[in-house]
Design the sequence.
C-alpha cells in the first residue's frame, strides 16, 4: 500500500504519522491557551486584558521558526531547576515536546482572537438568563457559553489548524522526524531532492483535503438546528 | 501570561519530557548527515564511522547507549541543554569550541581540502580564487577557515548540512567546496561526485577530531579516554577503520 | 563576552540581516499582488474552466509549507540537467532569486484568495448600477469592482504582509543572510545562541509593530472602515 520510493516510502509514512501526532498535540495545547487568552482579553480586569493582549502581540510578532528554536534550546535552565526539585536533574524537552509547545503557543495567540470574536457574538441576555435561573458563573460558561462558542469559532479554528499543519514542517529544524525531515534525509541519501520534496508536498495536500472534509462534517454537526443566513 | 506559560511548560514537561540519563544510559549526539562518519539509512538507523566508534566505546564502558540526532549548528547548544551526554560527530577540536565544551583525546585526524569540477582549472592560491563562490557547512572549521582567511577574496556560502553544499556543487551554484578531506573523499567516490576532484594541497592539515562532553564533565571524559585507548589497543578501532577507509585515519 | 559587547560588535551585521529581510518581503508582496490580480479575478469567475487553473495553483501553494516550496525550487529543480542548461538558470542558481520567486508565488496564492473574497463583497447593486449606466463588463471591473475591492481587501492584505515577514524566516536554509541567517551564523561562532535568537526575535517584533502602525495609518487615511460592505 505504501509506495517504495527507493526504500524511503515507509520512512515518509512514519513521518506523516509524526506530523499528525504533532499537529494534534499542538492544537490541544493551543485551544486551551486560546480560550484562556480570549477570556483574559474579554475580562473586566485591566491587568488580565493587558496580559492577554501582550501574549497575542508578542507571539504574533515573532516568527514561528524562532519560537520553535527558542523553546527547544531555551527552556533549559528553567526546566533543569524544576527537574532538580522533582529528582530528575536531567529533565529536558525533547523535540516533540518543544514543537508541541511552540506551535501550540502560536496557535493559541491566533485562536484567542477567534474565540474572542465568538464570545462577543453570544448575546448578553443568555448570560443574564442563566444568572436569573441561579446558575453559577462556571456552570453558565460550561453549559451555555462553551457549546455555542464552539459553533461560531469552528470555521476560524479550522483555518488555523490548516496553517498549523504546515507549520509542523518547521519542527524539522530541530530534527523531529516528521514529513519534511524524512524527505530531506531521503533526498540526501538518494540525491533526488525533487522526487522526495514533491512526494512530501503530495502528502501535505492529502492531509489538507482530509482535514477540510473532517471540518466540513464537524461544522455541519456543530450547526445542527441553527438557521443560517443565506445570501 | 508568563506565569501561565511557564506553568503550562511545566505541565507539558511532565507529560512529554524524557527524564534522561537513568544511571547507566548514555545518549550520544550526532548529526546524521555527514557520510561516511554519520548518516541515516533508509530504515532510519544512524550509521557510520562515528557511530560505530561511539558504540564500541559504550561497550568498553559497559554502558547502554542511545543515538540522538541534532542539526549541526545546534549540536553544541543541544549538548549543553542536556539533550545528550556526548557528541560523536566528527567534531574538530578548536580553541573556540573549548570555550563551550570539553574534548576527549582525538580519535582521528583530518585535513581541509578544496574540491571542484574536474573540467575546471581550479587553483587554490588567493589570486586564482578571487571572486569564486565557495560552499561550506555552517559552524564547521571549513566555514570558519574560509571566513577568516578568504573572507574578502571569495564569496562564502554556508549550508546547514554538508550534503546541501554538495548538491549545490553538483548543480553548479558554487565553484568549489571546502570540507574535511575524508568526507570529500567519500563524496568523490559516489556517483554524484564522479566529475569532481581534489584541488590543490590541503589548506589545513592538523585537524584533530575529538568527542565533546559538557564542560566540567571530567568523569565521563576520563571514561571515554580510557575506552578509546582500549579499543585502539585491542584492534576494535582498526577493524572499524578498515570497514570505511583503506588507510589509517587515527 | 558580556551582552553589551556582543550587541556593539554584532548589531551592524544583524541590521544587514534586517535590510535583506525587508527587501525580500517588500518585493515579494508587491510582485505577489501583481501575480494575484489575474488569479483572483479568474477565481471569482462564474465559469468553472476559468476557475480551474487558478484554483489548482492556490490549492497547491496554500496547502504546502513555504519551507517545502523553497526546497523544491532551490534544491529540487536543480536535480534536472534541463533546468541547469535553460535560460532561467542564471536566476535559479542564485538563492536570492529562488527565495524571491518562492515567496512571491506563495503569497500570490493567499492574496488571490483575499481578492476573491473582496470582489464577492462588493455589493451587487453597485455593479448593476454601473452596467445600467452603460459601462461594459470590463469597465465595471476596472472602475467599480476593483477599486472597491481594493479598499475592502486592504486590512487582509496588510495582515498577509506581516505573515510573510514572519514566514520569510526560513530563507536562511538556502544560504541567505536574513535576520535568522545572521543570528544563526553569528551564534555558530560565538556560542551565544539564545542571545542571538532573542535579539532576532526583538528585531522581528519591532518590525511587526512598526508595520502594524503604518498600515493602520494608511487604512484610516483611506477610510477603509467606511468602504466596508454592509
Sequence:
Amino acid at each position: 500500500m505504501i509506495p517504495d520510493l527507493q526504500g524511503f516510502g515507509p520512512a515518509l509514512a512514519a513521518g506523516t504519522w509524526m506530523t499528525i501526532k504533532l499537529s494534534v498535540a499542538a492544537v490541544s495545547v493551543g485551544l486551551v491557551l486560546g480560550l484562556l487568552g480570549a477570556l483574559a482579553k474579554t475580562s473586566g480586569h485591566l491587568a488580565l486584558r493587558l496580559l492577554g493582549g501582550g501574549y497575542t502581540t508578542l507571539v504574533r510578532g515573532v516568527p514561528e521558526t524562532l519560537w520553535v528554536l527558542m523553546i527547544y534550546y531555551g527552556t533549559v535552565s528553567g526546566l533543569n531547576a524544576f527537574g532538580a526539585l522533582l529528582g530528575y536533574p536531567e529533565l529536558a524537552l525533547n523535540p516533540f515536546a518543544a514543537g508541541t509547545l511552540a506551535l501550540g503557543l502560536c496557535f493559541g495567540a491566533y485562536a484567542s482572537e477567534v474565540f474572542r470574536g465568538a464570545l462577543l457574538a453570544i448575546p448578553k441576555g443568555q448570560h443574564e438568563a442563566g444568572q436569573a435561573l441561579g446558575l453559577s458563573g462556571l456552570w453558565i460558561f460550561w453549559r451555555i457559553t462553551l457549546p455555542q462558542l464552539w459553533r461560531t469559532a469552528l470555521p476560524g479554528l479550522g483555518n488555523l489548524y490548516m496553517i498549523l499543519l504546515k507549520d509542523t514542517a518547521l519542527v524539522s529544524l530541530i530534527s523531529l522526524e516528521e514529513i519534511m525531515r524524512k524527505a530531506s534525509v531521503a533526498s540526501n541519501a538518494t540525491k533526488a531532492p525533487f522526487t522526495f520534496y514533491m512526494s512530501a508536498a503530495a502528502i501535505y495536500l492529502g492531509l489538507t483535503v482530509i482535514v477540510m472534509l473532517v471540518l466540513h462534517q464537524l461544522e455541519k454537526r456543530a450547526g445542527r438546528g441553527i438557521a443560517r443566513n443565506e445570501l | 501570561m508568563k506565569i501561565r506559560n511557564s506553568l503550562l511548560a511545566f505541565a507539558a514537561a511532565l507529560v512529554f519530557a524524557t527524564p534522561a540519563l537513568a544511571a547507566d544510559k548514555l545518549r550520544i549526539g550526532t548529526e546524521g548527515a555527514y557520510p561516511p562518519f554519520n548518516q541515516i539509512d533508509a530504515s532510519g538507523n544512524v550509521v557510520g564511522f562515528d557511530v560505530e566508534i561511539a558504540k564500541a566505546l559504550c561497550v568498553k564502558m559497559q554502558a547502554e547507549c542511545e543515538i540522538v540526532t541534532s542539526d549541526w549548528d545546534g549540536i553544541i547548544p543541544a549538548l549543553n541543554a542536556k539533550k545528550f551526554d556526548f557528541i560523536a560527530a566528527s567534531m574538530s577540536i578548536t580553541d573556540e569550541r573549548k570555550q563551550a565544551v570539553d574534548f576527549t583525546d582525538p580519535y582521528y585526524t583530518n585535513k581541509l581540502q578544496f574540491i571542484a569540477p574536474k573540467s575546471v582549472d581550479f587553483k587554490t592560491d588567493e589570486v586564482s580564487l578571487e571572486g569564486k563562490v565557495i560552499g561550506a557547512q555552517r559552524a564547521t572549521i571549513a566555514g570558519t577557515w574560509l571566513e577568516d582567511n578568504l573572507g574578502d577574496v571569495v564569496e562564502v556560502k554556508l549550508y546547514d548540512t554538508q550534503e546541501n553544499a554538495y548538491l549545490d556543487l553538483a548543480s553548479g551554484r558554487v565553484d568549489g567546496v571546502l570540507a574535511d578531506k575524508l568526507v570529500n573523499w567519500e563524496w568523490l567516490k559516489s556517483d554524484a561526485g564522479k566529475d569532481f576532484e581534489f584541488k590543490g594541497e590541503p589548506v589545513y592539515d592538523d585537524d584533530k577530531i575529538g568527542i565533546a562532553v559538557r564542560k566540567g564533565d571530567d568523569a565521563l571524559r576520563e571514561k571515554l579516554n580510557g575506552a578509546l585507548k582500549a579499543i585502539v589497543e585491542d584492534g576494535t578501532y582498526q577493524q572499524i577503520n578498515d570497514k570505511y577507509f583503506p588507510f589509517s585515519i587515527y | 563576552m558580556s551582552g553589551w559587547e556582543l550587541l556593539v560588535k554584532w548589531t551592524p551585521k544583524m541590521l544587514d540581516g534586517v535590510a535583506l529581510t525587508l527587501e525580500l518581503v517588500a518585493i515579494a508582496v508587491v510582485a505577489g499582488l501583481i501575480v494575484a490580480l489575474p488569479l483572483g479575478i479568474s477565481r471569482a469567475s462564474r465559469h468553472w474552466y476559468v476557475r480551474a487553473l487558478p484554483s489548482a495553483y492556490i490549492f497547491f501553494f496554500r496547502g504546502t509549507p513555504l519551507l517545502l516550496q523553497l526546497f523544491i525550487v532551490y534544491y529540487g529543480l536543480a536535480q534536472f540537467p534541463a533546468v541547469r542548461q535553460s535560460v532561467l538558470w542564471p536566476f535559479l542558481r542564485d538563492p536570492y532569486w529562488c527565495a524571491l520567486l518562492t515567496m512571491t508565488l506563495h503569497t500570490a496564492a493567499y492574496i488571490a484568495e483575499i481578492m476573491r473574497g473582496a470582489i464577492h463583497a462588493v455589493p451587487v447593486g453597485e455593479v448593476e448600477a454601473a452596467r445600467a449606466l452603460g459601462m461594459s463588463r470590463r469597465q465595471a471591473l476596472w472602475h467599480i469592482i476593483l477599486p472597491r475591492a481594493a479598499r475592502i481587501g486592504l486590512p487582509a492584505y496588510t495582515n498577509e504582509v506581516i505573515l510573510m515577514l514572519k514566514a520569510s524566516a526560513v530563507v536562511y536554509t538556502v544560504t541567505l543572510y536574513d535576520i535568522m541567517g545572521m543570528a544563526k551564523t553569528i551564534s555558530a561562532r560565538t556560542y551565544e545562541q539564545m542571545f542571538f535568537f532573542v535579539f532576532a526575535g526583538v528585531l522581528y517584533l519591532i518590525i511587526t509593530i512598526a508595520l502594524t502602525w503604518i498600515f493602520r495609518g494608511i487604512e484610516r487615511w483611506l477610510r477603509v472602515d467606511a468602504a466596508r460592505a454592509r
Notes: Chain C touches chain A at residues 59-60, 63-69, 71-72, 75-80, 162, 165-170, 173, 180, 193-194, 197-198, 200-201, 204-205, 208-209 (CB under 8 Å). The mean pLDDT of chain C is 92. Residues 3-43 of chain C form the longest helix (41 residues). The two ends of chain C are 59 Å apart (CA to CA).
